[in-house]
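User: Here's a structure from my thesis project, written as structure tokens. My advisor, Dr. K., wants to see whether a designed sequence matches the one we expressed. Can you design one independently, without my sequence as a hint?
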């Protein structure tokens, strides 16, 4: 009965590509042309932070970018992103984040799950979205990172901790800044309400775009005070050098 109903709906309102609007065969998908325009991040990339390499020696056993090679005290275990934030991909993010295309969360979460399979294989106990300040949440009506976390939870069965990590400091949008100013903008902006919820847990921190990593780093700094076993990072897109 459900299959018949869905077939009728698809006949009347066929699924469409999330980017160009062409009719496609499956819900929450892209047409082949748009899919091929997305620059998905695949190996070779830094095994720690996920920064893609343009090329790498096949003889290399462990691939690390210069930043990760020099960093002796990493603040996260692994970081992964599904695709590069570029002209052909950013509309998936921008329409989702600013123009109420909340339905994009499903396809983005699918891409994210595929990109982070090695993180999930290591084991995750909690999915934690980067929180919005309540004033911005009121204006936007939804937290895009929380919607991604919900869809990832549906795909993996891992629970989401929605309100344990809070953004207690009102900050300017990060898009207004660059470089070190981004770090100053979000410094000490986050805190943990219930440390025991995170103690000893393997945490997956979720956001939509990784640019400089300043926001994620401040979130991780707050979470580390609760003494989790590990913190991994996952975003839909990342700005690549």
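Assistant: Designed independently from the structure alone:
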């Amino acid at each position: 009965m459900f299959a018949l109903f869905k077939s009728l709906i698809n006949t009347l309102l066929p699924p469409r590509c999330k980017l160009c609007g062409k009719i496609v065969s499956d819900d929450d998908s892209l047409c082949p042309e748009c899919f091929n325009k997305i620059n998905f991040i695949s190996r070779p990339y830094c095994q720690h932070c996920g920064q893609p390499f343009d090329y790498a020696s096949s003889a290399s056993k462990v691939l690390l970018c210069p930043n990760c090679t020099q960093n002796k005290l990493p603040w996260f275990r692994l970081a992964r992103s599904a695709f590069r934030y570029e002209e052909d991909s950013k509309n998936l993010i921008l329409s989702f984040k600013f123009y109420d295309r909340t339905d994009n969360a499903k396809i983005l979460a699918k891409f994210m799950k595929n990109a982070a399979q090695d993180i999930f294989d290591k084991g995750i106990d909690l999915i934690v979205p980067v929180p919005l300040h309540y004033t911005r949440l009121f204006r936007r009506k939804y937290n895009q990172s929380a919607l991604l976390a919900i869809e990832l939870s549906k795909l993996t069965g891992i629970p989401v901790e929605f309100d344990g990590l809070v953004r207690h400091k009102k900050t300017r949008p990060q898009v207004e800044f660059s470089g070190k100013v981004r770090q100053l903008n979000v410094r000490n902006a986050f805190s943990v309400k219930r440390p025991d919820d995170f103690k000893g847990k393997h945490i997956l921190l979720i956001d939509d775009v990784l640019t400089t990593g300043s926001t994620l780093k401040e979130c991780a700094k707050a979470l580390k005070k609760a003494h989790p076993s590990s913190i991994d990072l996952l975003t839909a897109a990342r700005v690549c050098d």
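When you compare it with your expressed construct, this may help: The first helix runs from residue 2 to 12.
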